[in-house]
Amino acid sequence: MSVTQTSTNAAPGTKCWSCGKIAGGHFCSACGKIQPLPRGTSYFEFFALPEKLQIDPEALEQQFHKLSWKLHPDNFMRADEFERNLSLERSSELNDAYRALRDPLTRVEYLLAHKGMRKEGAAKQQAPPELLEEVFELNESLDELRDARAAGEDLAALRARLESAEQDFQEKLEAVDAELDQVRTEWDAVIEAAEADRAKLLTRMNEILNRRSYIRNLVAGVAKELADA
User: Fold this and answer.
1) Long-range contacts of 83-86, Cβ-Cβ distance < 8 Å, separation of 24 or more
2) What does the domain layout of the chain look like in residue ranges?
3) How far apart are CA 229 and CA 216, in angstroms?
4) CATH for 7-114?
5) Contact between 184 and 104 (Cβ < 8 Å)
6) DSSP letters of 44-107?
7) Is 34 within 8 Å of 86 (Cβ atoms)?
8) What are the phi and psi torsion angles at 23 (to 5°)?
9) Residues 6+ apart with CB under 8 A from 100
10) CA 89-18-73 angle, 5° bins
11) Alpha helices in the chain (DSSP H)
């Protein structure tokens, strides 16, 4: 997953399209013209950041506002069509990049997606093996609650059981978040390490996110059933 590629940013290399000088970043340092970004540019690179998962939110926000002003289409109203299109693309990509990186969780999701490890439309998640028994019992309790509600029976005991299960899974979700925080720290420490070491951490992060998503959906499902009851 990278910055969107279109006809205006398909030019390879790092030479300025206008003056031919070597140009890095969003603008040519020689002539000041807005530049196409190299194919595959990540959101981290868009903000000139290393692929670290611990980012100073205030610094990121400041950089976002700075780039928003510089890349805004209003600054290119008198430019030619090529530059106007570049400005529109950069502004849109800036918003996408900021949304992805400003939140610690979406930052991890983006990194994994950029590395090709999280796909949209993936197969339905399976229950983590260590939770199979608890998930089975939870589903049984949910079925009992629905049946009792349909029959007009007293729901107090079933509600109490489900509220306890909801709290238990909420605690599991908090434990998963703590584990994810630890792995984020480990990733930043090995960012310059061998590819195999980084790949192991990416795999761990992906597994943790899958587990987190499953548990989060369980908690949301129980909360909805309790609200309906």
Assistant:
1) 83/33, 83/34, 85/6, 85/8, 86/8, 86/9, 86/34, 86/35, 86/36
2) 7-114, 129-228
3) 20
4) 1.10.287.110
5) yes
6) HHHTT--S-S---HHHHHHHHHHHHHHH-GGGGTTS-HHHHHHHHHHHHHHHHHHHHHSSHHHH
7) yes
8) -130, 130
9) 43, 106, 107, 109, 110
10) 30
11) 43-46, 57-71, 81-101, 104-114, 132-151, 156-189, 195-228
Identify residue 211 by its one-letter amino acid code: R
> 């951490």: which residue's tokens?
201
More confident residue, 7 or 193: 193
CB atoms within 10 A of CB 162: 21
Tokens 């570049």 belong to which residue?
Answer: 86
pLDDT tens-digit profile of 46-95? Answer: 999 999 999 999 999 999 999 999 999 999 999 999 999 999 999 999 99
As given in the structure block, the two tokens for residue 224 are 């909805």
Burial class (CB in 10 A: 0-12, 13-18, 19+), 132: exposed
Amino acid at 36: P
- Distance from the first to the final alpha carbon of the chain: 42
Side chain identity at 210, as an amino acid letter?
Answer: N
**Measuring CA to CA, how many Å separate 179 from each of 63, 90, 185, 207, 209?**
29, 35, 10, 11, 10
Rounded to an integer, what distance in angstroms lies between the CA atom of residue 50 and that of residue 47?
A: 9
pTM equals 0.85
